[in-house]
Amino acid sequence: MSGRAARGEHGPGVHPSQGHRRPLTRARGRAWLAGAGVLALAATIVGCGPRAVGTDQLGAGATPVGAGAVSESPRPATPSASPGAGVTSAPGPAVGDPPAALPGRGVPPAAAPQVTRSSTASAAPAPRPTATPGAPGAPGAGRVPGGLSGISAGSLSEVRAWEQFRGSPVDVIVTFSDRSGWAGITQPWLGTSAERFAGFTGIWVISQPFFPTDGGDIASCAAGAYDERWRQFGDWLVRQGRGASIVRPAWEFNGAWFPWSVSKDRTNWVPCFRQVVTSIRATAPQVRIDWTFNAHNTDAFEYYPGDEYVDIVGVDTYDQWPANKDEATFTAQCEQPTGLCAGIAFARKHGKQFSVPEWGLVGTSDTGASKVGQAGGDNPVYISMMHKTMYDNADILAYEAYFNDDLPNNVHSSLINPTTHPKGAALYAQLW
Asked: Does the predicted TM-score (pTM) go above 0.85?
């Protein structure tokens, strides 16, 4: 989710956020110094929740990827994507987004390994930092959960403020191209100045549509009509010295709020994705492709483009649908067929890393979920459980980025500038 047009990230094509997150089961400043209550809560929570998957639960041929950085293991040669080629395994019947009567139409529960701790895990996580009840936690007193860690940002100033807030460096930024026309897609706004990350030493993650808002469709994309545009984008990455960047084509495709939603054209969606990836790689062979779905909707895994077209399995997830006020609720949502835990299990099964490109708290006013009591608000439990889930699966975590946003009609997830959620901000700064 993103509503950053005001900061130049993707022009007028702002997310419609109020219908953005839906349940699977029913219709669905420096305020970070921790008070004693938050710290006591941290001490109680840290150490529980979803656990790591062991190597004995990996799919055939899959191996864990080392923690701490995006994998640079050799990629199998990408086969030529035939324009108009259909999905190799037929998706289910076309249904609305999401059908309240069909919870979890993502992947049969038995098809994905559960995210649980195993004594045969390839590498045990390092000892977890713990909170001391009654003692203030300094920013950065904890550690990032693994992989690259950062923020969704539109300027270097935002990144520096986030680093100061949490006391640890940002080494990945999630960004969104200006999707109002092809010019903003093939030559994004990044790198035009220091403030726009020209000298940023970390990794760029660029979220890209299939086509601009001024015209295009999934069928034309599948037929190869936009291939040259995507080759131009790949060439731009290389010329910027960013050929190994991460690209998220058609992120959150399983929701209904974007023109590239799979619900718009179920037959041609996968062929389109393959065309885009093949074309970008033609000129930027080191680019990393993140196939990102939304955790709060159905219709994800049956539209997997194939291992040869995906490097990272991404999951965007927020504290809503339902509010995750305790460990049991968080775990139940995480283990839903398109929940974060299901995404991690799917990544393991396919020998991939996973990412959490967008995650955050959700305000209890001016949000779609809040109107029906499904927003978590200032919820340290969610912060702690997200850290634990990522920490326990750090061996395959490519990157994670908090979505710090307070624009109207969006998720209101902001931890700083402004501090919308002081308790959540305090625990985040302590753990990261």
From this structure: no
